[in-house]
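User: Hello, can you help with two protein structures?

Assistant: Certainly.
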Amino acid sequence: MAKKTVRRALVSLALVALLAVAAGCHVMQAIGDTPSGEEIAAYEKLPYYRDGQFQSPVPLIHPGRSSARGLSGLPRFAWRHLSRAIAGSPNAPVAPLPKAALDKSSFSAAPAALAAYWLGHSSLIIELEGKRLLVDPVFGNAAPVPGIMRRYTSAPLAREHLPPLDYVLLTHDHYDHLEYATMRALRAWNVQFVVPYGVGAHLRKWGIAPGRIHETGWGEAYHADGLTFASERAIHFSGRTFGSRNTSLWTSWSLKGQQFRVFISGDSGYGEHFRDIGAKHGPFDLAFIEIDAWNEGWPRTHMFPEEVIRAYHDIGARAMVPVHWGVFDLAGHPWNESIRLVADLAAQAGDVSLLTPLMGERLVPGESVTGAWWETAGEGKR
């Protein structure tokens, strides 16, 4: 009997060890890769690359150097997210959020001249002059480890129900914008990837053919199918580990067709670059501007609500869809705090066209009517 007990214990330990190894391999794969020596040599010729890293236009302040909303230093920052993984976020909605469920049949065979679907957080499907773009697609959690950085709500579209795509557009490599599982799922698709410098290293490691990856830097553009994908500055940072910080670039995107112009802010603090982008590429028929994860402890990493309105005016937007909210607890906000503040400020300004579709709702500028659905959504008792 004792021998059987020992044997079972050893088998159990072996299984646990195998699972740990498998989990570790998965995490290492999901982290991605860093640029090659040849690529780094090319980056060193860029004015915004120095000492092995891409440089933000404005120096950042990070949680390790300041404190805000109870966060003091990286250890406490990490502990906060670990506790959220165990107990859930107190900032999450209590009741399920409304959404417009999508599947492949929800999309027309021919993409529209200008339409969009917000899939939650910064994930988008944009139809622009007959082409369909998937932007920063994340359908699961915003971390390489299951259970960490959990979603408030599921995506309105399952990954396997994505419609035919022409382009995948990425703003940077943070986990809430670049998801390993989705990139792996798109390996065999006939789709092109337009990304900032350095992000291609992740995609190549995950099995995407180099010929389908188009990398650009600030002030550069990729041209195809009558569209221009212009990469411009953003005040932010990159990295999927502490050791890979700023080894890839982060960007905002100006999309220009023959008839319409679309702006995607990506993640960015507020700065003069918005005025420069507006002067160079604007005005924009539609702008997707990040509104959440602002924090006094890292004031330049994301935009505060009043800065969102300033950025809208700077770029010359005719209409704005707020993104980067409603899915993850990144900076200690109640889930609808940022949208409430931005909507109030937009109403006070009087000249801001704020479009706020449900997750998954088809949006056509000039036709769609949206409302303040977050005012009564997610309520209940904990």
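That covers the first. Now for the second protein you mentioned:
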Amino acid sequence: MSPVDAPTNTWTESAIEVLVLKLLAQQMGESQEELGGRLRQKGAGMPIDSLEMFDMLAEFRKRTGLKIPVKKLKKNTLRSVRAFAEFAAKESS
């Protein structure tokens, strides 16, 4: 089942983290493995700027059907892939 077809209740924190890493890798023209390794070495911070983040969020919404309240997005919820995954899983439940 592709992410687009997956039911909303299957989006766990770890599934969101994997999808976000995939979307970021695609956006940056890297493999997931390369990006994941680089993020682990550098402390896993978000590798894109805020404008690129909105592109990623739009694709995330399209693939998952999850609606993340933009007004609730804060610097700390976007500081890393993991922080975003935690926030998105909590907000979508």
